[in-house]
Specification:
Structural class: alpha/beta
Shape: globular
CATH class of the largest domain: Alpha Beta
Mean pLDDT: 93
Number of strands: 17
Distance between the termini: 42 Å
Radius of gyration: 23 Å
Number of helices: 14
Amino acid sequence: MTKKQIKSKEELEFFGKKLVDQVDKGKNPEIKFTLRNLSNIVFDKKSETLKLGDKTGSRSFFNVAHSKKFLQTVEVASIIKKELLESGKHEHLRGIFYMSKRTIPGTNVNIVDDQIESDKSIEDLEVITGLSREQMHVSANKMGSMIGNVILEDSGDTIDCSKLGKGGYSIPSITDELEFKKIKAKYVLYMEKASTFERLAEDKFWDKNDAIIITSQGQTTRGIRRLLQRISEEENLPIYVLVDNDPWGYYIYSVIKYGSIALAFASERLTIPNVKFIGISCDDIIKYDLKRQLIKFTDQDRTRLKQITDYEWFRNNKDWQRQFKMMKYNDSKVEIQALSSKGISFISDIYLVNKIKNKEFLD
């Protein structure tokens, strides 16, 4: 068992011992935790990240309103300690759900009925113990790839991410356990679209421009956010974000830079305050004449744009408010792939090269 596994196991043991001590003293066993609801999410202006506030709550076993969630938290903690940490093995969120889905003896009540219940118990344990889901050996779906001059060690295997073809290295959901052996790059380019990644990979953009390219195939995952943060901090490399010119793409950038409401409790392990937005911006629509590629907004797009415009971290940023104003005026969006209308390799040969050379970033 590694030192990290021992520490994680000890944290869960400490959590269990506190409950046992309460029972031994004839007390109603109670779990105290920091609230994860919207009313307790704050924007820390000093670190420029979303964090949990100082409001706390509790669950006690003999409170009918709390008892089932109390049991769910204890059951999931027991599974993680005994089945994962003590064995050194990992399990998917879905597996944890099925391992905890059992009927309470003498009743017809299941400890959990839906995966969302076991998922929330894991998130509660992250807040209660200070351990990340990944430190507890719980994995999720892997949805990303990486190509570049990166040599890393993954589960004892040495992997050269420059020699894995156009598909690249399949990024696991737990990236804390990866060990960087050698990284040679000037910057990291993260993109939401797998199709864009495939274009840049085929064009050997990463090799020609001494870059690392990473995609999450849509909304960025926890594992990829952690990977980006590690590369930024451990290798001191700038991170550039390439997303669609729509409220959803802008939101992806916001999550990477400032954090998300859902994972505010994990901001320190996931956010990258110095990340920069490379595109696609509303100015690019004019500069590269993409008006014919505009796609009309839906009501859902308009609502999302209003929401991000009002985010505290964007509210007083003149550059971003200008982008939001232009997007509202256009009442339309443009996808990254629209750049292919200028030539199949326009994004690789001209767009990205010029934007990086001229430092045309939004911060």
